[in-house]
Each structure stands twice: as structure tokens, then as C-alpha cells.
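3.2 Worked example (two chains)
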Amino acid sequence: MALRARALYDFKSENPGEISLREHELLSLCSEQDIEGWLEGVNSRGDRGLFPASYVQVIRVPEAGDGGPGVPCRYANVPPGGFEPVPAAAPTPSTFQPHASGFPYVQPSPQQLYGAGGGGDYQGSDDDWDDEWDDSSTVADEPGSNPDLDGSASAGGGGGGGGGAAAGRYRLCTRSDLSLGPRSGAGGGGQVLAPQHHASMSSSSATVSRNLNRFSTFVKSGGEAFVLGEASGFVKDGDKLCVVLGPYGPEWQENPYPFQCTIDEPTKQTKFKGMKSYISYKLVPTHTHVPVHRRYKHFDWLYARLAEKFPVISVPHLPEKQATGRFEEDFISKRRKGLVWWMNHMASHPVLAQCDVFQHFLTCPSSTDEKAWKQGKRKAEKDDMVGANFFLTLSTPPAAALDLQEVESKIDGFKSFTKKMDDSALQLNHTANEFARKQVTGFKKEYQKVGQSFRGLSQAFELDQQAFSVGLNQAIAFTGDAYDAIGELFAEQPSQDLDPVMDLLALYQGHLANFPDIIHVQKGALTKVKESRRHVEEGKMEAQKADGIQDRCNTISFATLAEIHHFHQIRVRDFKSQMQHFLQQQIIFFQKVTQKLEEALHKYDSV
């Protein structure tokens, strides 16, 4: 039996090792045995690779000598002898992804993909995690509801929780009567339509296809499910994230109650009778003036929650962890400065600053009210407004339409900007680091060598023992001391000017690392719009369905443009302030150098 197959649907390859298919195209199969829902074969253009088994209908073609009655040929390029359709298994892209070599690999576990916290309660930290957090009561471990939590926190959320909507909550749903589409269910569970039947029903059954790469940011963020109309949930008034039209385009609605938060007094604490040590940071928000103490692992937990909840917002990265030397004074000081920058960006963001979990982090005194702290922690980990449901919380300007071509142009321009900024930030960071190293070691050493040489000359002149030369000898020795002091000034100066610049660059490199994923979500939404428009032009989709996809894409576009606007706003603010500080410190430094030289110069006036 020669193994062949006919394509039931169009398929566009998106990963190395895949091949594209055209509807009604004939393919040669390497084997009829599918691998995790994928078949390997050769298309009519001679390309060999993988494609979804549910996209094709397998045809058994008797070869010469097989015998059997001849039957009329149903397709022009199928030899007489008939064929036997074989239902194909539905693809399972969530458990399979083609490798560049063309061979499949097994889906990694959540722990392999996301670390120890993947798929469950986040536990990443640079020290122990089980002393303050009630890890025995995590979301994954509890089969039922948590009696400690407010009942309204999960009403209507999840798979079937809650009855009606509580006061102040709105049922939002993007579900349409779109089917899952051929990529997700074309051959699963039902009859595989013959090609002629598929063509006749295309007007009512065509859908926007799903992304086969289930590990892409567009899929993991819930953006795909939202755009395809599969998100449904209750949104409280307080959870709405408003985008407004400003003078420069979409922007986040300002925080009506702005605040700041200081981080100071890092202190070393102990527990278990001194067997365990950790550093505690004192936080004082200006809107409460009530100090709370947090450890680095608390910051780490908060960052994980925020990064999971806000797929189109750039959550600033925390200062890097360090396995050794965590209690050294220099490291503690450097980490505190990094956390100050982090907190400044968090409090400055109109959305992040008002987020419930961030406010809980800033205001709940965990040391005095452990129950309230743990309840807030569980509530954050059970948040229903994540993934596809997060996009339901976005409120965009009424009756405001976006030109998708203009949006795409702006996104592409910002993508080029971030690439250029990232390259220049790396270069500046390298240059500043190298210059600081020279100041601390090389410049200090060279200036002290000059100073030592001047003192050597002074000591030589002292052998003259002439009374009129004493003043000169002392002046030259003072000049040598001045150069020693200048060398010390060079060694101390980077902490005043270059280090703050490098701290700022490190923070922005974290932001720049976030934006490719944010842009990917928006680009994925635009792709679905283009695909739906093509279906409408071909008469395979109703215009109303395509309009719904475009409306939801507009929601993502509004949020993305608002986030880009905020990034540029804080970038101008931060770099203006930091460059002013840098130049002011440089002026102060050279004034100190000038003062030392002038003092040495005046010593010669009395010679």
C-alpha cells in the first residue's frame, strides 16, 4: 500500500521542521503512524517535514499487483483502485512541539520551564521559604475553598465557583460561537469531513487558527484565548484598568492617589536562636507612614505574582540574587540601591501602584498580623483575573478606533528603538564599568606614584640644608601629598557618579528584556485580525465575528501603546535626573581636585 494523504485545511508552518499545506493538496506520507498528533510526509512542492494529523485525510492507494476491482477515480491525481479514509487523531500541540531537526520532543514539565514555582505556588528565593510562608496551605494543596478568605474574592471565578455576581461586579465574556478551529479540533472526536463537504460548509465553520506553539508568549499570556473570544469572568469596579487618550495617544489613567516609598535601614536579623540569619529592609510608604519590614524573598514573591498577572506591563526586574556574600556591607548597600530604583518604578506606574497585591505588600505588617498577611498572600495566588481574564479588566476609550496599520508601524518603530537602546545601554555600561575600574585601581595608583616621586625630590633637596630652601622642600612635599589625596578622590568617585548611572542602566535593561514578550502578544493579536479579514474576503467567516476579533485586538493594542507611552515618560524623567546628578557630581569632584592643586600652589607663595 502506498501511503498518501489529502490536506483538509490550509496549514502554515510556524516552527523549524514543519511544512505548509494547501487545502486539497496531495502529500506522500513517510508513515501512517502519528507521533503525538503529528505526521511526517512530503508535500507537492517536495518539502519534507511535520504537519498536524487532523489536517489531513489518509488515503490507502493499492499499488500495481495488489489486485482488486478498479473503481472510478474521485480525484484526478489519485490512481484507480479507490481509497479507504482513515480518521486521524487530533493534534495535541500543548504536549508537543517540533524540534529544528524535524523530530518531536516531549513537553518539559512546568518545573523545567518555569523553575520550582512553575505551575503552582511560587517558591523561588535566595534563602529558606518555609518559615514565614504557610506552604502547607498553598493553592495546589487545597481541594476546597479557603475559609479564611473573603467569599467575594473568588465568586464566579475559576471553573464553576460562585453563583450570581456580587454588587459592583460585572460579568464580562468574550465567548462567541466560534469553534476551536481546525488546529485544535478539526479531527478530534467527530467525523472528518471530506474535502467537498468542507468547502461547502466553509462559510459557517471557518475560524481563525490557533498557534501551534503552545509555549509562545501570546498563548501563555492568554492573549490568544482572549482574542478568539474564549475569556469569561467577573470584573470588580476596582479591578478595571483604564486606558485614556492623552495628547500623545493612549496612556494609562493617572493614579489619583500617588505616593512614594522609602527603603532604608537594612538590618541583619537572626532566628532559630541565631542559627539562621537574614537581611530585613524597612519600607515606609508615604500614603500610610506605617513602616513594614520585608526580606528579599518577599520582593521575589511579589515580582512573580506581578509578572504573572500583567502580560502587557513591564514589571521592573529586581536586583540580582547572590548565593555567597549576602551579608557583606557592599552587597547590602548595592542591593538596597537597586531596590530603591525598583520601588520608585513600581510606585510611579499608574497600574502597578494600585494593584491589590502590591498594596498588600506595602501595608500589611506581617510580623504583627500574620493571619492577614497569609490571607492576602493566598488571595493573590488565587487571583482569577490572570491569563485571558486579565484582558477583560482593560477599559479602553469609548468609540475610539485604532488604525491597525498605524499601530503596527508604531510597534515596529518601538521595537527598533528598544533594540538600539539596549545595544547602547550595554555599550555605556561596559564603558562606565571599565572607566570606574581604572579610577579605583589605575588612576589612584598613578597619582600616588606621582605624589611619591614629588616627595622623593623633596627628600633629596633636604640634603642641601640651606635655610632658604626649606620652604621649597615643604611645598614640594605638600604637592606630593596633594597628588596622593587626588588619587584617593579618584578611587572614591565612581560610587558618586558612575555607579548610579550603571544602576539605572541595569534597571532599564530589565525593562528592555520585558518588551519583546509584550510586543509578541500584540503582534499575535494583529496576526489573528489579518487572518479573520482574509476569511471574510473569502466568504468563510461572518463579518460580525471578524469585528469581534478586531475589537479585542484593539483592546490589547490600547494597553500596549499605553505601556510604551509610560516607558518613554519615565525614561525621560529618570535619565534627565540621573544625567544632572552625574554632571553635578563630576563638577564637585573636579572642584575638589582643583582645590587640592590650588592649596599646593599657594605653598610656593612664601618660598
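3.2.1 Second chain
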Amino acid sequence: MRSVVLVALAAAIGNMLQGWDNATIAGAVIYIKKEFHLEKEPKIEGLIVAMSLIGATLITTFSGPVSDKVGRRSMLILSSVLYFLSSIVMFWSPNVYVLLFARLLDGFGIGLAVTLVPIYISETAPSEIRGLLNTFPQFCGSGGMFLSYCLVFGMSLQESPSWRLMLGVLSIPSIAYFVLAAFFLPESPRWLVSKGRMDEARQVLQRLRGREDVSGELALLVEGLGVGKDTSIEEYVIGPDNEGGNELPRKDQIKLYGPEDGQSWMAKPVKGQSSLALASRQGSMLPRGGSLMDPLVTLFGSIHENLPSENMNASSRSMLFPNMGSILGMMGRQESQWDPERNNEDSSDQDENLNSPLLSPQTTEPDDYHQRTVGTMHRRQSSLFMANVGETATATSIGGGWQLAWKYNDKVGADGKRVNGGLQRMYIHEETANNNTNNIPFSRRGSLLSFHPEGDGHDQVNGYVQAAALVSQASMMPGGKGETAMLPKEVKDGPGWRELKEPGVKRALMVGVGLQILQQFAGINGVMYYTPQILEETGVSSLLTNLGISAESASLLISALTTLLMLPCILVSMRLMDVTGRRSLMLSTIPILILSLVTLVIGSLVNLGGSINALISTASVTVYLSCFVMGFGAIPNILCSEIFPTSVRGLCITICALTFWICDIIVTYTLPVMLKSIGIAGVFGIYAIVCAVAWVFVYLKVPETKGMPLEVISEFFSVGAKQQDAAASFLSDG
């Protein structure tokens, strides 16, 4: 994982520069207004600080769709260039108008980094550590603020501090960011696949994963190009293909093939055994029972609650149980049948478009059953016909405990003729045995499940596992007549505006936009604004002044210390993000935010003595900031980068980021007015109410996404949203 961690850190430097700039301008503006005589021009002074916010909002309006067009890496390179140019212009600024223009350029760089870095990290990170890596932007942003405050504090101790030098120093880390973005960061493999650049995507995945065989994940990225429109949940019992045995009836089966010679397994469709399917059925009925909890929360929860506890460490999540691993290609690391370029080396340009074969052709004859190398859907159909099995599938692991398979329906109609059912994709997940509710005959034997066929008294046949699958139309298509390779379907170029109307996308947008609104109105800006005043009341400012430090320098040092408190809390958040999960972290930390804000309100209204009130306020602010950065500070951006399909991810992130910046502007400019009208107690009281609303929203509407592949997350939103819509439609019609 070393390569993907370094890539995430390099990308997060863009957020470090954002934090650096925010801290620098807070200190530099003190000296800017002296040089340009802005003491009587508070609007211009405020505009200097806010211009970067305006620039970030403006560029966010098209950053997502443009990144879908030209790539994530290209936009990160542009961000580094804008950072550098803005720092040079700020250093040179002969008047306030040039300075305002430079601040606008700086906002452009900030907007691109804040919007696209989480997307980039999510699209390059493995699902097992995606949450940890997506915490890097939060950590780097706070780290950049701390370093900048320390630097500006040191400069403020000089006899004649130079605000130009304070702002111009930004050019140095921006150069480093440009070098890393241009020469070290690879392009997002998901974006490359969306453009049909299969060979480049394979090379990037090999570099990021540190292994040669990445064909399974590459196939997953192709399947993630579509938005699930007809996704269903199906249940199976999966086990070895014991030829000549009678453990499973031959009718109505799916045959699974492993990558090794002669490997094959059987999957029998069943009903009523999967907790995932049960949660889906119960979720679709929730509106009738009057429950306010979104069925999506129940659906996602059914996965996380039923993982085998003995395999919950990150290193083994991709191999949740040995049988399923061997069934779906986890055993052995030899080159598999899913290599999109292995048999096409003679073509120089075929990997640059979506017509590159994803499955390599084989020519083994059907009767060579024990000597075949399972390679093509055509070959599998031949063995299928000999075995009289209804469907065939190929499969491979995609990490996070999920398996990817394709089944090609070739069923017999009422007239006796074969009906082409098309290629379907399956995301398969193991279910634990203790979730049976219909007396289905399963029993636990070690780490495996045993199956008693129909409870008929036969001896136990070890090696069968219970699984649920998300099944939908594949994003790949069979080759033409006489062709044996499977080809990716053509992909639209540009943002999928129509796909925003899909129920799953609309539901994900509701979650993303809701989190961004509640985060900004949860009080972080007000607490940061109030912190220097609190520390001044505790006597910290007076102590620093007695040491010979000016009031301006003391304010900068206090801000540096406040930022320093956040860093260890973010490190704790990194460790917990993929263990307890995003949803659990927010549900655990938001009540502490409420308690801290209520304590601040009480401290403002009740006079317990100056020192006691100041001590209570200081403790409350410290606890608030620590818990905010652990949960509500980073998680909304992480979730927004995870819950949207690849085809509309950039567009949806733009909508969420615009919501973030607009709410940030509203909160920033209404805070002074609110302080004058209702006082500190009223402001923090409102923030406490918003936090309470946020907790209810997270509990009812926000699902847990830890450890799940991005493509599986978007499919869950699709199937859950459509089931709830169908139930609501039934109620309205009834």
C-alpha cells in the first residue's frame, strides 16, 4: 500500500496550501490595512479576505464537469499553477486592486483542490483504507494552518513585518505541489477507464496496488461506468462443482469458474436466507410502518453487521473466507482471464479506445473439460450446454469482501428455443449462517458453511456458503457474431445530466447536500471566531504581552496553538475511519458538539466568576474543536466522494461543493450580525440546535460506507432508492 499512500499524501498538499493561505491572510491583513490605509475601509479589508472564498465558489461551478472531461490530474496541476501565480502577484501587488485580483486567483486554486482532491483519493484508494486516506486532506489542511501561523508569528516579531513576504512564501510549497502533480501523481484509473484508455488504467492500478494482476479491479471499473437502473438482490448457495454428485440439483444453477485449470463451482438460487435480501424487503415496507429511517441505512447496515468477526482486520477483508476466495479466483495469484491486453499486444492503438477486449479469447474444445483454461464466455457456454446448466458466470475478487461475477443467461423458452437473456453483472457478498429466518438447513463447520439439500437427511456436504448478490445489466457487451471476446460498451463523453434524475443519484445528492449544509451551520466558524476572545479572557493574551510579545503576535500564536490541538485528534480519526466507520464516528461525536455548545451558552449566561467562566469556555472550545475535526469536519467530504456513480461523480461533487461554499459565505457574513443582535449565547444556542438536527439526519438518512467498493455503494443507493419509491407509489395508489 506504500505507493497509494504516497499518492494520497501528494494530492493532499493542495489542501495544505488552502490551510496555509487561510492562516497567512489572517495574519497578513493586519499589516495590509496599515500600508493601504484601510482602517476606515472595513468593506475593502473584508473583501481582501473574502475574495479567495468568492473565487473558490466561482470555479467550483464547473470544476467537476471539466474534470470529467480532461481528468482529475490535469485539474490538480492547474490548481498548483494558480497557487503559484497568485502568490507571485500577491508579493508584487502595487495596489489593493491587484491584490484583490491575486486573491481571486488564489481562490480558484483553493476551489479546485478542495473539490477534486477527495474525488482523486477515493478513485485511487483501495476500499479497505479509503477512509483513512481521505482523512489526509483534513490533516494536511490543519497542518498547513499550523505551519503558516508559526511562520507568520515569527515574521511578526520583526521590527517591520512584511505582509508581501508572508503571502509570497506560498510560492515555495506550490512549486513542490506542481512537481508532484505533474511528475508523480498518476491519472485516476476510473477516469482512464471512462475514456477507454484501458492500458493506461491497468498500468496505474499495477503501480498503486503493487502487483501485476489487477484485471479483476479493472473489470470492476468498467462495470462502474453505468448507473444501476434495474438492480436486484438475489440469493445463492455457492459451493464446489462435484461432478457426479447429487448435492445440488442440476437445474436452475449458475456455474462459476475459477482461474486455474479445471476449476469450477456451482451456485444455486435460493430464497429467504440472505440478511441483505431480508433487509431490502423490510426496507421497502418501512414507509407502511411509519418508520422515518431511510431503507438505505438498513440495507447498508445489513452488510456491516454480518461480516464474519474473525476476519475483520484490513489485511484479510479481501479474503473474507477461504472457500469464496477460491470460488471466485482468490486462490493463486497467477494471471487471470480478465487481462484486457494480454492477447492483444500486436495492436498499437486498440488499448486507447473502448473496443479493447476485456476478456481474452481461448480456443480450447468443449470436450477437454479437465484440461481447459477457462478464458472466454463463448467457451463457457460450450461447457454449459454439455452440463445442461441454465447460466454461466465468471468471477474475481474486487476487495472489501466483495466478489465480481458475470452471468450470461441463455435460458430455454416455452417454445423450446434458447432465449438470449444478455450479460449480467453480479456483486457477491458472503452472508453468515446465523441469519437464517426460514429454517433453512445450514450449519457452521469451522469457517465454512455446510449445506443439507432441502433438509432431506443427506450427510452434510462441507464447503457451501450463503451469499447475496446485487445483479444488474453489465456495462460490457458480447463481441459480434463469430467473436469470442467481451467488449466494454461505448461510454458517453461529458457529464450525464439525465442520470441526475435516477432515484439512486437523487438520494445520494440529498445525503451529500444535507451533510454540507449541516456541517457549515454546526458552528465551526463561530467557535473559531470566538476562540481568541476566550483565550484572552483566560489571561493567555496578557501573559504573552507581559513576555514582550505584541498583541498582534500574541493573537497569531494563540491561533497556532488552537490549530495544534486539532492534529492529534485527526490522527485518531484516521485510525477509526475504516474501523468504526463514518456514520458511527458522526453519531458518536455530534452529541459531544451539542454538549460543548450548550456549556458555552450556560457559561455566557451564568456568571460564576471571571476565571471560572473563562476556564469552562476554554474547555468547551477545546472539546468542540477536537470532536469536530474527528467527525463532522472531514466525513461530509469523504462521503460525497464515495456515494456517486463514476459517470456523474464530478457533476454531483460540484453541486455538493457549491453548497459548501455558499453556506460558508452565509455563515461568515451573518455571524457578526447575529452576535450583535442575539449575542454569543443566542448564536451558540442556534448552533446546538443545528447539531441536534444533524444527528437526527445522520441517524435516519446517512448509511455506512466503510470498506465497500465505490461501484457497490452506488448500486446500493440505486436499489434502495427504487424500492422505497416503489413502496411510496404503492401507498399513494392505495
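3.3 Remarks
Residues 237 and 539 are 69 Å apart (CA to CA).
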